[in-house]
């Protein structure tokens, strides 16, 4: 095979250049949109003085805002079907007790167990979030099934009795959105936002695949069907105002999957990363994923606006580098080692033990031993495809 000097897939500068040739980087789109949104954020009831907006050019002229105004009076129809018990606590065996904690200005997060789905966690492993608006609440990724959703609802009522007025789903994996069902039961006309690819893929079989996975591993899917699919598609760069809360979403075309939204909440300067970042556990990539694309996305995010809080799909939220770097460094090491093995005409299984040694700092991450070899294999396939495309 031709072994020419080919682009180094591990240098971020080159990655960025390559990306720029084809499309505007999602982070750039976000950055531009943020500039335009700045004046509007300043008008909201919620004070924005703590926001870290130093990277924004606030002197820019606001010319095109294009904001979708959502009238919450038309979306909030409370049906009272679900009676929630606000006295009991939400406990999952050895994983302990879970509740929403204030993580940023008007943002509450419940950090789920950082493990794969199993009987004891009952299918709860993600990070549901609640954003408190003036007259209602906005939920991001309510969780992995109907029963968990009911518990999440009860916990939400402990922080506020305002109605839930909207949901965001970050991507197609059921552990993040199957709990929509419990919220829809109580608020039947609620708007559920997601990328159109997420809605399409879920309806065309991905929801059933995830139902099978979670049913087998957790046995806790009763009531989850019929699925409460998202009903409001959001394209890359969409800006939306929900009861004074301003969001911009970006859709990385190929990173964790091709269905993801990264959601920026501007009032609090919180960035919801979805599963483009995981901390303490590894998930799986599928045929729609790109590890090289995921690296590129995270490197762009690190270069752009500094948010005050970064929320991964799994694992603890935090400041930018502490949240993004462990997963990004993992992916970059896979790319570097994968490239080396590829150049030496080695197969991934021949080098995986050596690579695993270099990642000893991750040995306690959930599913590390199971998923790392598959990730290494995948990144080598991607490198091979890129090289073929160059020839
Ligand atoms: Zn996930």
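Q: What amino acid sequence fits the structure above?
A:
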């Amino acid at each position: 095979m031709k072994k020419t000097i080919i682009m180094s897939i591990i240098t971020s500068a080159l990655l960025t250049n390559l990306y720029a040739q084809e499309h505007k980087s999602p982070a750039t789109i976000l950055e531009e949109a943020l500039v335009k949104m700045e004046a509007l954020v300043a008008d909201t009831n919620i004070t924005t003085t703590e926001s870290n907006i130093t990277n924004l050019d606030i002197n820019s002229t606001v010319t095109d805002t294009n904001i979708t105004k959502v009238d919450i009076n038309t979306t909030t129809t409370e049906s009272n079907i679900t009676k929630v018990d606000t006295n009991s606590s939400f406990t999952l065996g050895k994983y302990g007790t879970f509740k929403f904690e204030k993580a940023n200005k008007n943002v509450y997060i419940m950090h789920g167990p950082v493990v794969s789905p199993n009987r004891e966690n009952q299918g709860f492993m993600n990070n549901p979030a609640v954003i408190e608006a003036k007259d209602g609440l906005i939920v991001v990724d309510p969780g992995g099934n109907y029963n968990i959703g009911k518990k999440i609802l009860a916990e939400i009522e402990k922080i506020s009795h305002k109605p839930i007025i909207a949901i965001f789903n970050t991507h197609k994996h059921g552990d993040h959105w199957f709990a929509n069902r419990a919220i829809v039961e109580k608020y039947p006309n609620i708007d559920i936002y997601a990328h159109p690819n997420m809605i399409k893929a879920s309806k065309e079989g991905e929801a059933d695949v995830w139902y099978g996975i979670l049913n087998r591993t957790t046995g806790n899917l009763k009531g989850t069907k019929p699925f409460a699919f998202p009903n409001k598609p959001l394209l890359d760069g969409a800006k939306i105002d929900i009861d004074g809360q301003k969001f911009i979403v970006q859709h990385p075309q190929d990173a964790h999957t091709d269905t993801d939204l990264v959601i920026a909440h501007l009032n609090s300067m919180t960035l919801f990363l979805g599963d483009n970042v995981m901390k303490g556990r590894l998930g799986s990539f599928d045929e729609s994923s790109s590890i090289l694309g995921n690296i590129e996305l995270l490197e762009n995010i690190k270069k752009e606006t500094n948010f005050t809080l970064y929320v991964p799909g799994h694992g603890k939220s935090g400041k930018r580098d502490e949240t993004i770097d462990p997963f990004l460094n993992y992916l970059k090491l896979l790319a570097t080692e994968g490239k080396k093995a590829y150049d030496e005409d080695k197969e991934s299984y021949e080098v995986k033990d050596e690579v695993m040694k270099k990642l000893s700092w991750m040995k306690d991450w959930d599913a590390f031993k199971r998923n790392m070899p598959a990730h290494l294999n995948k990144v080598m396939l991607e490198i091979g495809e890129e090289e073929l495309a160059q020839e």
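Q: And what stands out in the fold?
A: The pocket of zinc ion is lined by residues 126, 173, 175-176, 275, 283, 313-314 (CB under 6 Å).
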